[in-house]
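Revision sheet: structure tokens.
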Amino acid sequence: DGIRDYKVTGVQTCALPISSVTLAGNIPALGTGVWSQFSGPAGAVITNPALYNTTVTGLVPGSYLFRWTISFANCTSTTDDVIINIYDNPTPANAGPDQTICSTTVTMAANAPSIGTGTWTKVAGGTATITTPGSPTTTITGLAPGTYTFRWTISNNSCPSSSDDVQVVVDPAPTAANAG
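Predicted:
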């Protein structure tokens, strides 16, 4: 019948500053093609539905399904779908205030992400154990006197991460008092 089925690949991208994406259907060897939005948030605009590599504008965060249909004469049309996921950028990370302690344990005070997930990592300093890396208020144990840097990173899929560092200074315990 001269009509070929072509598999379109999925696209994942972030909400801002994305203003458009380009669809990538095949050029019909026989027949004509048309793009249509099959599902997803309203407001997406297919610039030229008959163009195999048209752009789509007006995208907001969400999952879209666009369908490429090639038709010829009285033959059965062929279709293929592409899913485009638009993600929100993650919440800006705030690791909380720097801390000076005289203990082997510290409690962190980062912001809880409303978009994305957070993770604590140790950037500098001696040995330490992050009890719950995904908790903004995790405890960190096993600290010895010295200076540590911990990083709170918030990520959301393929969007650029947001990170912030906090410094923890562990002072040595004072000399034990002896009155005698």
